[in-house]
Amino acid sequence: MTQETTEHQPVKGPRIKKGLVCVNTGNGKGKTTAALGVLFRAWGRDMKVQMFQFLKHTGSQFGETRAAKKLGIGMTAMGDGFTWRTKNMDETQDLARAQWEIAKAAILSDEYEVIILDEFTYPMHYGWISVNDVIEVLRQKPHMLHIIITGRHAPDELIEFADLVTEMREIKHPYREQGIKAQPGLEF
Amino acid sequence: MTQETTEHQPVKGPRIKKGLVCVNTGNGKGKTTAALGVLFRAWGRDMKVQMFQFLKHTGSQFGETRAAKKLGIGMTAMGDGFTWRTKNMDETQDLARAQWEIAKAAILSDEYEVIILDEFTYPMHYGWISVNDVIEVLRQKPHMLHIIITGRHAPDELIEFADLVTEMREIKHPYREQGIKAQPGLEF
C-alpha cells in the first residue's frame, strides 16, 4: 500500500525499484519541509541519508539541524545566509560551488540511499552552477539513490530530466494575510 | 532568519507568536511528507508533537511509523486502509470518527505543541465528519498549538479558516510517466 491511500494507482503488478530524481519547487511552503519528511521516513527504514543545504548560513541551527544532529544524520549548511537583499554575491557563489563539489562526491560515492540538495535550484537559476553539469552528474548517480532537489525557479532542463516534480503553490500565507512571520518548529 | 532565505519577507518588526492552522492539499506528492518534515523540525526543537493518521491501516509500518517509534513520537493510524476501491465504508467511517474523538481530546488537552491530522480532509470531504464541527474545535485550540491537516479536497470552509494553505500540485509523476510505483523510504 502506498502512502496516498486514495490515489488511483493499481496495486498489482511489479514494483520497479529505482532511485528517483525529485524536485520540489514553486512559491509555496513545504519544499524543504517535504524533503525533511523523506529524511525522516528513510531514516525510519534505516536508509543512509544525507542533506546538503545551499545558501543557508554555515552553522545554522534550524529545527532540522538540531534533529539531524541528535540522530546522527549528516546535514551540512554551507552559505552566507543569502537573501534577495544580498549585495556582494561573490562569496555566496563560491560557497555554493564548494558545497556542490562536496555533494557531487557524495552522490558518486555510492554510500547513500537518499541525498537532499536543499535550495539547490537557486545556484542553477542564477547561473552559478551549470544545469547541464548537474544533469550530467545525476545521469551517473547510483541506480538506487534517491535525490531530492528543492527551491523555487527549478530550471526547465532539470524538470525535464527529473522523475518526480511537485509544485508547492501558495494558497494562503500567514505573513501576507496577517503579518505573521515564520514560526520556529513549523517553518525552520 | 526564516527557512525560506529567498523569500521577500522583511526581517525587522516583531515576531508574532501564534500556533497556526495549516492545510497541505492538492493532487501532488508532499502533503503528508511536509507534515512529517514539521514533525522532524519540531522534535529537533524539543517540542511536543503527535500525529494522527486517518484512513491508513491500523498497525501500518510506514517509514514514518518506524521513525516515530524509534524517537518516542506519538503516531497512531486508525483505519482500514480505505482506498477509492473500498466498497463497504461503514467501518471506514466509524474508525475515522473514533480517531477524530481521540484527536479532538488531544487538541483540547493543551499537552501538545504540534498536532498533525493526516489525511483528515477525506472524512470531511465525504461528509463523515462535519467541517463546521472541526472548525469549532480548531477555534478552541490552545493559542500556541500548531495543527497541520493533510489530504486532497480540503473543504472550502477549512481553507477559509486556516492560516497557511499550500497546494501540492503534480507536475510530473513517475507512475504516470514511467509506470514506477511508490518507493519505500521516499513515499511511505
Commentary on this structure:
The structure is a homodimer of 188-residue chains. With 188 residues, chain A is of the alpha/beta class. Chain A has a single domain (21-168), classed as 3-Layer(aba) Sandwich (Rossmann fold), CATH 3.40.50.300. Chain A has helices spanning 31-44, 63-71, 90-109, 121-125, 131-139, 156-161, 174-178, and strands at residues 21-25, 49-54, 74-78, 114-118, 146-150, 164-172. In chain A, strands 3-2-4-5-1-6 form a six-stranded parallel beta sheet, with helices on both faces. In chain A, α2 (63-71) links the parallel β2 (49-54) and β3 (74-78). Chains A and B meet through β1, α1, α2, β6 and α7 of A and β1, α1, α2, β6 and α7 of B.
Q: Judging by the overall fold, what is the CATH architecture of chain A?
A: 3-Layer(aba) Sandwich
The CATH superfamily label of chain A reads: P-loop containing nucleotide triphosphate hydrolases
The strand count of chain A comes to 6
Alpha carbon gap, first and last residue of chain A: 31 Å
What is the CATH fold-level name of chain A?
A: Rossmann fold
The run of helices and strands of chain A is EHEHEHEHHEHEH
Show the largest interface. Answer: A-B, 91 and 90 residues
Question: Structural class of chain A, please?
Answer: alpha/beta
Q: Indicate the percent of residues in helices of chain A.
A: 25-40%
Uncertain stretches of 5 or more adjacent residues of chain A? 1-11
Oligomer: homodimer
Q: Rg of chain A, please?
A: 17 Å
